[in-house]
Design goal:
Length: 496
């Protein structure tokens, strides 16, 4: 009888002992993983195995993160990892947070994030289009002296000059004295690059050479695109990735029309997706870059305030457009008779630029209405004039929208609403001075993100674009690596 009862109680004792043991173990484990704000750091340090323990605690202050040292016997690995970490940390106030070696460093938005290999295409693809001629075998102009670099033509061409600024920035990235520090640096070995840049000035090629000259069967623009496709298909870099890690600038909506079907796997830098089928270009894969504004930037101190801007709303542009642009005409008839509204025909090229600049700097709101493409240069002219943009373009994609909240400095109006009688003016007239001023202040803060310049400066359009590219790279790499999974598997042998 007593013998029988002994077994269960011993069993119970055993179970209790084991549970106690597990409880102690699990609480130790919990301590290690719980929020540091609940446990003094000194206690954490007592409990944790030093330095070789690898853990990450969300919300931990960055400068307190303890990271395992990289294996020193694999230098290649170390430098690659360091670089990737580099790619991901931008600025402490940005929402992205990644664990990386750089976490301990003070964040700086202009640290090198990206290694770029640039093909040495012959000058006829880039600076040759600007009339530049180097000496025999010279591919690139010297860019040490910013005053002596080949000039980009002014006028309307300038809107789509993205390609030119990016190329100059890369060329100068190895020259210590020009525009340091660089977000992107050029590397000579494509195996060490995060992205491969294709230095074709496609917008300039379209703007200047798409007409057939006498005796020509194909335009220079088409010929260059054909040759570019041929060149790229023959490169080991393209073959390696199927072009997915290539960066191609096609900012003018009509540039690259001939080649784009074959080059659509690349990351494209575009003005909008208006004329692209979604499988060729989309916001996941590609980058929307701002137009180079045509009006001059208003210095902050000279920017007119609410009272000083006598015009309520300003629009100047071509009124009759094909495709989505019909709304311009309808708005014109709705607004043309209002006294504090400027709504006028005509492109702002040539002399119109000064006039438009004056008009925008003295207006509270500037309209951006969909034209024949969803985007237009007008938005960027409005921004640098500190004229609060009113965006009436349902399909528009905006540059840098992952880091900029446009609603902080713009109004968005659905096309269907804008066409309701009185809707637009009611909205603008009922926007209070305080609210407007907040948007105006924000405009002044973000204007520099829309400046293209050489040498580039921290946070300007050139650097913002490189940062966007850096954010695309991890997903490009993920897809490439996934595709590689079975590359060593023997090919299937057909049974009989
Ligand atoms: C952890 O180890 C490092 C050297 O590896 C030492 O400098 C540091 O003081 C140690 N920290 C603790 C809490 O023991
Ligand atoms: C980080 O970004 C914010 C806004 O985007 C900016 O105000 C701040 O100056 C930046 N900080 C650094 C260190 O670049
Ligand atoms: C230009 O390049 C070709 C081929 O690489 C070479 O044979 C020639 O000597 C070079 N000319 C000059 C002036 O460097
Ligand atoms: C380029 O880099 C790869 C990997 O880092 C290396 O194996 C190769 O030898 C390098 N090529 C040249 C020409 O330096």
């Amino acid at each position: 009888m007593s013998e029988k009862s002994m077994v269960p109680s011993r069993f119970i004792f055993c179970v209790m002992f084991i549970s106690m043991f597990l409880l102690v173990l699990s609480s130790l484990f919990l301590l290690q993983n719980s929020s540091p704000s609940l446990i003094p750091r000194s206690v954490l340090e007592l409990i944790l195995v030093n330095s070789s323990s690898m853990y990450f605690i969300p919300n931990f202050k960055r400068d307190q993160i303890i990271l395992p040292p990289y294996p020193s016997d694999d230098l290649n690995f170390q430098s690659k990892k360091g670089r990737e970490a580099d790619c991901q940390v931008f600025n402490s106030s940005q929402k992205t947070s990644y664990v990386g070696q750089q976490m301990n460093m003070a964040s700086d938005s202009t640290r090198t994030l990206l290694r770029v290999f640039m093909y040495d295409l012959p000058p006829e693809f880039h600076f040759g289009l600007l009339g530049w001629k180097g000496s025999v075998n010279q591919t690139w102009p010297l860019v040490d002296n910013p005053k002596l670099v080949p000039r980009y033509p002014g006028g309307l061409n300038l809107q789509h000059s993205v390609e030119y600024w990016l190329t100059l920035d890369l060329l100068s990235s190895n020259i210590a004295k020009v525009g340091q520090p660089h977000v992107a640096i050029r590397v000579q070995n494509s195996s060490q690059a995060d992205v491969i840049f294709v230095p074709f000035f496609s917008s300039l090629s379209y703007n200047r050479h798409s007409k057939l000259n006498e005796g020509e069967k194909v335009s220079v623009n088409k010929m260059l695109q054909d040759r570019l496709v041929q060149f790229l298909m023959g490169q080991k870099e393209w073959q390696r990735s199927g072009g997915k890690d290539h960066l191609i600038v096609a900012h003018h909506p009509n540039s690259m029309l001939d080649a784009r079907k074959k080059l659509g796997s690349a990351i494209l830098v575009l003005a909008d997706f208006g004329r692209y089928p979604v499988e060729l270009a989309n916001i996941e894969k590609d980058i929307i870059a701002p137009y180079r504004h045509l009006v001059g930037t208003i210095p902050r101190a000279k920017s007119a305030s609410y009272e000083e801007r006598s015009t309520l709303v300003y629009f100047q542009g071509a009124i009759y457009r094909k495709d989505g642009g019909a709304i311009r005409q309808e708005l014109y008839y709705l607004l043309k008779d209002e006294k504090d509204v400027h709504f006028a025909f005509g492109s702002i090229g040539g002399n119109g630029v000064n006039q438009a600049s004056q008009g925008m700097t003295l207006s509270k709101f500037c309209l951006n209405i969909a034209g024949d493409t969803p985007s237009s240069n007008r938005l960027f002219d409005a921004i640098v004039s500190h004229c609060v943009p009113v965006i009436i373009s349902d399909e528009i994609e905006l540059p840098f929208e992952d880091v900029l909240d446009y609603s902080d400095f713009s109004l968005f109006v659905r096309s269907s609403d804008a066409l309701k009688k009185g809707y637009l003016l009611n909205l603008l007239r009922s926007t209070k001075q305080g609210e407007w001023t907040k948007m105006w202040e924000r405009l002044k803060e973000i204007t520099h993100h829309f400046e293209y310049q050489y040498p580039s400066k921290p946070g300007d359009a050139v650097n913002m674009i490189w940062q966007q590219v850096a954010r695309k790279i991890p997903s490009v790499q993920l897809n490439l690596h996934k595709k590689n999974r079975y590359r060593r598997s023997p090919l299937l042998v057909k049974a009989h």
